[in-house]
Amino acid sequence: MPGPSPGGPPPRPPGAFSTAFWLLCAATAAAMFGVQMLTASLPLYAARLGASDAVLGMMAGAVALVSLASRPWVGVWIDAGGAPAALLAGIGLYVVAALGYWAWAAVAGLLVFRAVTGLAVALFHTAGQTLTVGLAPPERLGQALSLYSLTLPVVQLVGPPVGVAVARWLGDPGLFLSVSAVSATGLALAWPLRRRAPAPRPHVRRLLHRAVMRLGVWMLLLMLPFGTNQALLAVHASRRGLDNPGVVFTAMAVGLLAGLLAAGRLSTGRDPRGLVAWGLGAAACGMWAAAALHGGWLVVAGLASGLGFGIAQPMVYALVADRVPADERGSAMATVGVLLEVGVALGAIGGGLAARAVGLGPMFVLAGLAPAAGIGLVVATARRRA
Fold first, then answer.
1. Which of 69, 86, 246, 380 is 20 to 30 A from 207 via CA?
2. Residue 109 pLDDT > 60, yes or no?
3. What is the tens place of the pLDDT at every residue in 335-365?
4. Which of 283, 265, 256, 274 is nearest to 344 (CA)?
């Protein structure tokens, strides 16, 4: 076999990650940094426009509802070979939404462009997860999923407090222009993937994949407290005496990063279902800590919540990747994504309504019951298999 031409690039070692994989990670980091800049600052902006607690829940719920309605169709598109285009479309809609928040400075406008963000989430996240599996060397699939997942906690470490600081320094227009610029950078980084990403094989297309429905229910119960945090934790922390609520999301990112690293190490030779149960337990404790603590101590709640999400979520996706053939991963990932968004919507909208009825503190207690119930389902499944 002839060797590489003199002066050309050295051959990629077997099992090494490709340039396309690293471009995907870089584009994801840029796009998610823009999203994270709005995690704490957008609810505060909405509150200044007159949004109530219930409306704040509806804003987060709008993202989840549109995303869950869109994901099955996105999965069909991806399984037909449209993953690169779906990724680019999702990042492009992040740019549109950021500019829309600025152009239509009203509560109604925020709800409309949160719906646009929901479509962006369905496109971007489903395509990104599917491309990660397709671009990874088969013998390093678990490591690839962990590396891709690490982009979220890394940008969440600084994104929320940076967003609050930019809003205070440059005002709301400066914040939204900055977010759109950061998201556009992610679009530029992802652009070469339209040619390099492999297309899946033809298959029988389905909107929902029944083989992964149980895993989707676990994801729903895990993500219900996530939706509650996204919608109401910033306002709750502000009312509990924390000057910059973004630091709670930074603490959550630290916990998420620690959880992902721990899951990567502990998953070898172990049943992933056990790690899912531990992650659900940590997520429940995070909700109950948010209900009990004040001021700077709320970072403990963020750490516990992030730890739970980081341990459980990649283990669920690893189980999904093992459960279905390669040409059905788009629909399988989309199915779990639908139930993920159901959990986020229930946590956000239900949390807002519950907060109006019983107060923010008791609402966080109620939100912790969902992942606690999930532990029972995971344990029951493990016992049946044993």
1. 380
2. yes
3. 887 888 788 878 888 888 888 888 888 999 9
4. 283
Distance CA 55, CA 63 (A): 13
H/E element holding 215?
Answer: helix 213-228
- For 170-221, the DSSP string reads HHHHHHHHHHHHHHHHHHHHHTTHHHHSPPPPP----SS-GGGHHHHHHHHH
Amino acid 237 reads A
Q: What angle do CA 271, 272, 275 make, to 5 degrees?
A: 110
Residue bearing tokens 């829309």 = 100
pLDDT at 264: 66
Buried b (16+ CB within 10 A) or exposed e, 40-72: bbbbbbbbeeebebbbbbbbbbbbbbbbbebbb
pLDDT surpasses 80 at 220: yes
With both helix axes pointing from N to C terminus, report the angle between 213-228 and 369-385 in degrees, rounded to the nearest 10.
160
The secondary element (H helix, E strand) that includes residue 65 is helix 53-77
Separation CA 323–CA 238 (nearest Å): 43
The predicted-structure confidence for 15-74, as pLDDT tens digits, reads as follows: 567 788 888 889 999 999 988 888 878 888 888 888 777 777 788 778 878 887 888 888
Q: Indicate the residue type of 162.
A: V
Q: Are 363 and 232 in contact (CB under 8 A)?
A: yes
Distance of CA 135 to CAs 20, 224, 263, 286, 343, Å?
Answer: 7, 30, 21, 34, 29
How many whole angstroms separate alpha carbon 50 and alpha carbon 44? Answer: 10
Say what the pLDDT of residue 91 is. 93
Of the candidate ranges 58-72, 89-103, 187-201, 345-359, the one whose mean pLDDT is the lowest: 187-201
- Residue 325 is given by DSSP the state -
The answer to whether 246 and 43 have CB atoms below 8 angstroms apart is: no
The closest alpha carbon to 208, from 343, 66, 338, belongs to 338
Q: Residue 52 gets which letter from DSSP?
A: -
> How far is Cα 97 from Cα 78, in angstroms, rounded to an integer?
23
Read off the amino acid at residue 220: L
d(CA 255, CA 304): 6
With pLDDT > 70 as the criterion, what percentage of the chain qualifies?
A: 87
Q: How far, in Å, CA of 344 to CA of 142, rounded? A: 25
